[in-house]
Fold this sequence. Notes:
This protein has helices at 9-74, 77-81, 84-97, 227-238, 282-285, 287-330, 348-411, 418-450, 462-479, 499-515, 565-568, 576-586, 618-625, 672-675, 681-690, and strands spanning 102-109, 115-118, 138-142, 157-168, 174-186, 198-202, 208-210, 244-248, 254-263, 273-281, 458-461, 483-487, 494-497, 521-529, 535-542, 590-594, 602-609, 650-651, 657-658, 660-662, 665-667. It is of the alpha+beta class. The strands form six sheets. Strands 2-1-5-4-3 form a five-stranded antiparallel β-sheet. A five-stranded antiparallel β-sheet has the order 7-6-10-9-8. It is rod-shaped, with a radius of gyration of 63 Å. It starts with 8 loop residues before the first helix and ends with a helix.
Amino acid sequence: MANPRQSSFRRILVTRILLLFVPVLFVGQIAALNKARSSLLDTARQNLTESATIKGEKILNAIANLKNSLLLASRTAIVESGTSEEIQEFLTQLTQQLPKYVSCLQLTNSRNGNIIASSCEQNVIANFNLSVREPSLDIKTVAPPQPGTTGQRNSPNQLQLVLSAPVYNRSGQLRYNLSLQSALYQQTKSKRGSLTGNTIVIDQEGIILVHPIAKYVGKKITQHPDTAQLKSIVKNAIAGKKESINFSLGDGKELIAGYTAIADPITQEQQQKWVVLAVTTVDDALLGLEEIKLILIVLTVGLIGASLLASLYLAPYLANPVEQLRDYALNIHSHHAANPVPYNFKIREFNQLAQALDQMVDRLKAWSEEIEVAWKEAKTANQTKSQFLATTSHELRNPLNIIINCIRLVKDDLCDSREEEIEFLQRADETAIHLLGIINDLLDISKIEAGKLSVVTEPLDLRKILLEVINLQSVNVQQKGLQLKINIGTEAIPVQADAAKLRQVLINIISNATKFTDEGGITISTSVHHQGKSHVTVTITDTGLGIEPAQQDKLFRPFVRIDGNNTRKFEGTGLGLAISRNLIELMGGKITLESAGLNTGTTVKITLPLIDISLLPVPAAAKDSQHLPSLPKQETQESESTGVNNSQPQQLEAEYPQPEVENNYEVSIVSPSDVLPNLSTAEVCLKETLNSKC
């Protein structure tokens, strides 16, 4: 049942898109506006700095042109020796040819200051010091009329200069002064958004020569409302910095300015500087920002609307597959849900999700079946273990009872003769050895399950081990009247193995073959293979009970015995093959079992890797190199013999026992106590009792 606090996938999709998209748009808009503002201000500062540099160069060039024009005019013949009418006409024509910012040309008598000729009627341009008679050019600035004096107020013409040049007669005497009056800057209303800026010029004395507000012209910067900023600008400009700065002119408007410094065009001294500023308002610098803001607002509104439409369109497009998969998953356990998992979505990932869900369902079904099978197997294993405990307790209790009874009979002197005592002690000895084998099997299987079973391998002769085991097991084969066929060759078979553990495996396999075979015989053979990795295979084949193919894979499991009436009569714990397989695998080999079915016999193959024969101990290698005593052979090939020769075994040369041979089959018999040296103290005592040593 759905939780009322939970929301649907569609609603979450729409709200999350809007909640994430709208703030991102607003943040993006703010970031874009800040970036645009910063870029516009940087562009304005750069343009104003370049404009200030250009304005300074123009001032210098204009004054230089005025100087040249005035000097040329002062050296003309008409000015030097012409009549006043000729000079007047010349000055009038020259004024028309000069730039428009030249307002007047005037020739005055150097002695009394009388006007000889003038292009601006009879107005005196400036009062120069007439006592100066040096033949040089004189320049000075003219401040606008101060309040309370005559003259034009708030004149649009600023940076007014008066240039005066001496005029000499032909004899070299000073005769006239030729003066030129000009205004280099005229206040104009700059176009809104223009980044050339208004001009401010400050001379070396700190006097403002040009200013957008005419009332500040002629005043020192200390009288300006923003004195600190102007002083900082003058200091930076004289130091050679060409930067931009924000300040105020005192009218409340924030300005942005670029500045530069030029050499004083009047004194021509490099140490004295004029500072030229190009200023404009921040509003003019950010004129394009309003358009950018409007575009961003329209774009934001459009994107919000588009995101809303996109979310409303995508919600069902994405939610439908999720809802279908949800319905399938909710109804998967219903008996009425026979429909397959939905497919054919327009989105590949949902199809893959549907496929994965289908595969997951199949795996869950398979796992449920495996769990059910495993549960049954576990139940069976539990029953098997219970049966094993019951069988093992029986297997342990019976030998112990036999040993106790036999020893008590001898101890209580209830035997009639010494031979009867030896017979009981012999039975106790054999039973003790059988009990020791069961206990060893239990210890080995516990080590296997704990992962602590280990082997100590060394180079050894597999043929020698086989002969020892065959000599031991031939007694049981003889007692059951079975045929024993042996084909293990005459040469040493070098392998890397644990001798004691290998004997244990071979004894277990051959004793199993003997136990489950009532008629026929047992064949033991070896074959050496050099294809790929060299290895030897020991094959033990019997004609006994056989095993159903379906039961063969269970034989190598611990505690497992094959069910059936035929196998219940045989004693055993069912641990032998499991221990044998682990031991052989620890020695780098493998063991397999084959049987065609019941009453068809069984074949067990043990495979071990071969090593270099030179690694064998010296006696074995020496005897192999000398072709150790070869077994006598009959002219006929292998032929079966009934039973085993009962004659006493002969001894081979050196350290190997010489087995009896009949029809090319090697047979030798030794006592079981010689093969199992690790007996307890009681068992050793029993063995010595048999020899009348205790």
